[in-house]
Amino acid sequence: MRRAWILAAALCMASVMAAENKIDTAAAIVPAAPGTVFTQGEPLNFSLEAAAARPAKWVLADWQGRMLRSGEWPGEGKGVLTLAALPDGYYTLALETPGAEFSGLRSFAVVPDPAARRRNPDTFFALDSAQSWLARPNPGNVRHPQDGYATVSEAARRAGAEIVRERLSWNQCEPVPGKYSWDQFMVNAGELSKRGIQVSGMFHDSAHHAKGGGDKLPEDLAALYRFSRKLAETFKGRMTVWEFWNEQDHERYSTEPAWDYAAAMKAAYLGFKAGDPELPVAHGGIAIPTLLNYCNVMMMNGMKDYFDIFNIHTYEPLKDFPKLLDGIRAYLKRHGIADRPIWFTENGSAAEGPGRADSYIAGIKAHSPEQELLVAEYLPKMMIYMQSLGVDRDFFFVLPPYSEQLGAKDWGLMRRDFTVKPGYVAFSNLTFTLGSAKLEGSLELGDGLRGFLYRQPDGGQTLAYWSVSELDTEPNRPDRRITGQCRRSFALSVPKGVYAGTDIFGTPFQADASDGKLRLTSTRMIAYVNGLSGLKPAVPFRAVKKSGAPRRTEYDRTIVYRVRLSDDFVLSTGRDSVDTGKERAALKLEVWNLSDQPKTGRLKITGCQVEGLPGTVSVPAFGRTVLSLAITPEFGRDYTGAVKVSGTFDGRETSPLVMPVVAAAKLVRESRRTGLARSDRPEAWRPNASGQMTILRNDAENALKFHTRFSQGDFWVYPEFRLKLPQESLRGVYGISFEVKATPAAGVKQMLLMAVYGKQREHGEAVFLKVVPPSEKWEERVVPFPPGEVDPAKIEMLRLGLNSTVPDITYSVRNVRVIRTAK
Prior knowledge:
Helices cover about 15% and strands about 35% of the residues. By secondary structure, it is α+β, with helices and mostly antiparallel strands. Strands 15-14-13-12-11-20-17-16 form an eight-stranded parallel β-sheet, covered by helices on one side. Strands 28-27-30-25-24-23-31 form a seven-stranded antiparallel β-sheet, with helices on one face. Strands 33, 34, 36, 38, 40, 41 and 42 form a seven-stranded mixed β-sheet that branches. Strand 16 (about 310-315), helix 10 (about 320-335) and strand 17 form a beta-alpha-beta unit.
């Protein structure tokens, strides 16, 4: 069984590297279709590159490796091969010559004619195309199409995409204030618009003249407002959604505090709405779907009134989706934004691991045939699971080819030569079959089976079904392999008749219900059966009505506050609070007026004693007033507090700025710290890593040594310390302190302390707390538990570890202590 599927996988690969002295079939055969995607009714024409043209036999096979047809290439290799019409599906062509000069395969797809598709501009299924970045000319890619932008745009159209996510660069578009150059961004907007494809546009860089530059958030909020307004005006009719920034909760894309992002988001929102009032706006996509405290602080700063769509990303395994959505819904309810649509503007597969095959580009890995099939399996399962959990729109990441993690992780539904992989065809059939249908709920089909029932516009029902595989039930693994088809049978009670269906790639089949039972066989790959009626879901889907816009506010949204902190403050690793090493700390408060009228008002600052605050403040139109202040924060018993800036201008209240503060040094100095029992014993820590991990006792340094060697994939190590309850309960604990060092310290990507509400390995609700990365010398780290985010009484396990950029890393920990109430 496994051997048959591996053979089928091998026949799916379109860019197998040519053996020595052989011609790569993928490069030799040139399909007369963009991205090798033919639509129904198009001639299936193929030619051979001049250097490869020679007498040859061609062999056509389906995606499972079954030979369908064969023949001699016309004109002894110099003519055009025209295949007879084929049903929708994913196919391969092989070449044979007496001298065995060809190796590998050329894949191609046949998909429905876009004219035959039902259009649904509000469809759930979407793609992240990122084409202005990922399809631009690349001299290092010898097989890059010269018309990369048109190729990707047309591939999106032929896949049935109604909306894609795009990116642009502020610094490229406005290198000099007021001087605009839209370059490939306008080209791509035009390519997509003329094909009737909506675009969610986004930028996450700053122009240098806005005192940001690169990935730094802009400091000049008026410049950000003007650019956002100009974008909305210029691209009106071509863009249907705007996003501001990308993954701001991850230090890769932002190093500033959450309240800085909130201020910038307010300015961008106001600019977008000034340029195109009807266009919805999304905040920057949240990178960490467990929603770090950074995300709470964003909303504490009044940001909920400055976006229409809640925007988030995930690359988690399928099994974790229910837990993620439970957390997201609780977060939205907590912050009064449960009425906003939930969009996953990036949802990609990490299930297949890093690329295992060599590509034709040095240093870049590619998906193996088996990995391509794993992504194809993942994509429709992922989207249907997300839809069933109440998500409003999902964008698969990503359409064009893209590599990261030192070239090892292969993203993209297209290969480096911009030909499509099986996952693309799975998406095309998904949109054709369910793009205009309404989810009714799930059906109980039997053990190891999943079924979701949809209602079509004509009233008929469609069942999407598959067998549960390890992809549904296991964590992401870098070494995952296909372990079989997971073939299972089931029956539906339906009227007598012949029912039509399609496999994952759209290839049709028929099934006869002669005795009131429609008997079907399911595999790990999704399939669909149409024309059903009268079926009732076991678990009905109940969509939550979303308003899609902030509630009307009476306050003045155009007054926006921003702070510039002095060296008296230390920003927390999570960028969700500041520590004040001094009783009295200096800062500059910026009061921005993003309107065309000058305004005068009074400020109110709470949570601290403040010096230097004037009685009234006047702010010019589209300008700012800067106040030099000194504050003495006020702290509660838990040594935390929050400085809040609000005000009333021209009789109207304003949106607040909230800056959480913590007195870490005071917490350590005045609280009682006790050792965490057993934390110095290797056997008390459960190994938990993506590589080979050992935990040893270092008696000379009274420490534990955690050593891990990785082979491939995402390098992480998070050993688990399970608390013995109730005697080791953390009730009343304010935080954890410990000493740590690492070798090599430069290899530490990030360090986290995870407070876990459960004891199951890699499971359970967890709060991720950022830790200052270790050096190669012993240093103490203090990690407070943020009030309202961590409930110490619910903690059953701690994970203390790191993500690595190197394949061999060691870190040592000692003196783990809990911080309790004051003496």
